[in-house]
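Example 127, ligand fe (ii) ion.
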Amino acid sequence: MTPAEQLKEEHQGILLMLRILEKVAAKLEAEEKVERNHLERIVEFFRVFADKCHHGKEEDLLFPAMEKAGVPKEGGPIGVMLAEHQQGRGHIRGMAEALERTIEYNEERQRMVRAALRARLEAEFDQ
Ligand SMILES: [Fe+2]
């Protein structure tokens, strides 16, 4: 398998995960239950495989090779792909931050439920 074929095969894996993400997003919008672990693994896939591994290879090896072959870095496909990579990183950060907020939200909710239960128990024992 050539390096270009390898990168194309990786695109298929990333596209498959994007299709999974679409299904998961539809479930979340419909307020159906989604395993938190699945969301974390999806974010990890995009962060590690899609960005570090795949985009890393493109940025460190493919784009310099394209430049050597005469493709300009600015104002051409390399610039477009670099901008897309930056955009993708923003999306990954957004998903990771949303997950983090969900943890904080759940912890705060649990704390409030515990406080309400404690208040109720104290009220009952005071009678
Ligand atoms: Fe790519």
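Summary: Residues 11, 54, 58 surround fe (ii) ion (CB under 6 Å).
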